[in-house]
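Please check this record.
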Amino acid sequence: MSQSCSSMTAQQSHTDLDYANQKQTQWHDTPQKTEYAKRADTIMLIGGVAPIQDRLLRPALKSVGENYIGLPNPDFESFQVGKAFGNRGQCNPTYFTVGNLVKYLQNLRDEDGISTEDIIKKYLFVTAGGCGPCRFGMYVTEYRKALVDAGFDGFRVMSFEHNKGIFQATESQESVTRFSPKFFIVLIKAFMIGDIINILGYRVRPYEINRGETDRTIVECEKILSDAFEHSKSLAIAMYRCRKEFQKIKLNRLQPKPKVMITGEFWAALTEGDGNYNLHRFLEAEGAECIPQPLMNRLMLSIWEAEYTRTTHEGLDKGSNKTIDFSSLKSKLMIRAAKAAIITHFNLYAKAIGLNGYKLPDMDKLATLGEKYYPVDSNGGEGHLEVAHLIESVKDNLSHLVISVKPFGCMPSSAVSDGIQSLVVSHYPEANFLPIETSGEGAANFYSRVQMALFKAKQSAQDEYEALDIPDDIPDKVHDYMYQPDSDRAGTAAGLIE
């Protein structure tokens, strides 16, 4: 026994010594010097928003001279690739989006036969970036680290940051993409129209008589809109043509289905795939109608934050100087012009396709609702929006259930959903609220929790409908998706016959 212990001690000491003598290395984001292809030969990759927006971006950016390819929707295989090449302890969006890019490049190399050298020279990836109280500020570095480990050292990653403009994560001397005002206008229009099609699809699909008809109509609309973008045709006219396609769908809207508002961390709430266990389609399969959070909501929040910061900081460093700050005035006017332009175009396209009764959120109203529980000066993650959306849903009776979906360990969203929202629910006990996490795995537990909360929502929708006096003669117009009467009822069916 003594010899055995002595032998183990000696062996352990030898192991510790070997480990101590190993050279410690630290990974640094220092990409290799590479001579990249010219702008005309460069292909830009973008991905990570809703699938319809990824698909509309290609013809939209082609119209301004950009060669763009949308990445496939991230799936569970992307998650596994991200786990293999990414750092430990990252959140879901990182694993899914980083893994999706690496998987795409691997397929270019292994299946399409493009050499690694040509991939690095001819392709670049554009993603969102930023700072804040979470791992989002490290996303670009995570892409770089995974790309180096996967054998694509030198691959370019470019990032949008709301407070820093555009910067390249690599040290390329020349930007191959012209981020002109026209580029951003077309980009926003593609996102905006994708939002409208998505919202309308979620409004129509639960009530279709012929299953799959809505999805087939959306495919036809994508063709119409892609042609309009690529050949610079009127987008309003294209949306009106899409209205004609949607009107062909046969609907039975007098079904008491619970409405479910989906909010939470930006990517987890927006994506439609394995990244949130296909939450939207799962809810529809369970008999619910979804209220998705459009990408425009996040853009409107960014504009509101810029306007709020400009207003609150105005004059702090001026002292007694009463001279007009023309630079500040110009910025203020530009912010207001941008907000007005977005609202005007959104309403124009929504009206053209027949999306009636829907407006972009009033950010001032949401800030007023949320500031009692969340300081509006703190702009990490979705800021006060998660709190405000829940309160608005209860006060205005917008839904039967609010689900806050977020990645496992998401710091800003978890602090809100699992912390602050507990106080909100205690003040609004009638709220049906479910905070839930995604981890890339554990779908069974996720679905089980959603089903339990949805059971209560179904009961509320049914009670709301049955409490009404349903007339014997119901006009056919109630089955037209464009018919949206004003109502204080949450359910579609109840609102139609109130």
